[in-house]
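Fig. S4 source data, part A: sequence.
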Amino acid sequence: MRETMDFLVMRGDRRQNILCDLLIADGHNAQLLPGPEKWNRQNLPAPGALLVTAKADMALREAALAHGFRLLEYGRLPSFQRENGVVTAEGAVQVAMKHRLRTIGGSEALVIGYGSIGRPLAA
């Protein structure tokens, strides 16, 4: 039998709701959390829970440490940055298509930067 883990997922958009639902469906304890200024000991799990967030500012890091939570900033993971770069590049193409009077096929464009967004955008 697999160990049940406690997860805290920082509120954000629909993706965090889906993550929380998937964790629960997988047999784990998971709850969505507001910002740390609204935390109180009565509605938080015991220390040791894994706090999942895209990016943590200093206040969130300090609150997680004070409550004994482990912190996972998935926005810092190279695999997430790579996949998120593809999604962001596709969004940029969509915006370009929306604002052009003709198709963008065969157009020339300058892409500045060759990071996680610039690579897929240039392709």
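Fig. S4 source data, part B ends here. The two ends are 45 Å apart (CA to CA).
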